[in-house]
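## retry 2 of 3
previous attempt timed out at serialization; input unchanged, resubmitting
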Amino acid sequence: MKRLLLPLLASLSLAACSSLPMGPAPTAAETAKLPVITLGQQPLPPGDAYVLYFPAGTPLPIRTDVDGSAFAQSGESTLHVTLKRGIYGYRQYASFDQKTWVPWNQMLATQFHLHIPGKDGKNAAVLHLQMDLR
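## retry succeeded, writing output
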């Protein structure tokens, strides 16, 4: 698997790096000065000086690619999931209201599993991403 939807991959990476030292959480006044980009409605600006909004109830695409020299045929797929609550993201922080910011791993518990072969004995592999609100 080569690519996942950039923000979900970023949140996984941030959750994995949660033990790294972080600066103080941004304030509502600081993030209010930044543009809010709704996922999928416009291109991401360069750098990270923006707030990314993952809207609730809107299909969010998650793309998977499987390729490499081990495969005679590669494959790709796009899944669409919807969030129960909208989430704002800014660097290593997340917010439900764009006022109170917490590290991503304090808002979302993220687990990623790869089973080879799939536990049912029929699938060659199963990729499982689980994200729970805390």
